[in-house]
Amino acid sequence: MKEITHSAQETAAFGKKIAAQLEPGDLLLLKGDLGAGKTTFVQGVAEGLNATKSPNSPSFTILQEYNFPGGIFRHLDLYRLDNPEFDHDTLGLPELFTDEQAITAVEWPERLKQMWKRKGRTIEVIFSYGSETEQREIVVGL
Length: 142
Fold this sequence. Notes:
Blueprint: E1 2-5, H1 8-19, E2 27-31, H2 38-48, E3 63-68, E4 71-77, H3 84-91, H4 93-97, E5 102-107, E6 122-129, E7 136-140
Parallel strand pairs: 2-5, 2-6, 4-5
Antiparallel strand pairs: 1-7, 3-4, 6-7
């Protein structure tokens, strides 16, 4: 599925639309440059899930968790991992990524050195800049 958005509001609205298709156990791998709209998209997903609050970028805390009526929505930002191999176990990433009761969105999944065997869907979401200032192309591998 591909969407062209022209504002942060449209990017969030697309995230909200995608939320309706998510289920516990899903893992969203969000890929794109800094400022490409990943966190804005996640805010829309959280809204669509009726999460308890709107996410902000977890760049410095790495992980944020939000309750929603169907379980837990996790938002991770791996950009600041210093040593991805060491940090996997320290942060409990194997448990977080294989949790069948949560929907997990991960920014900068390229920082992972491995992916763990999972039962849920792994959905790649790729963000690209468009030709206009606020324009984004978002491709969701559903």
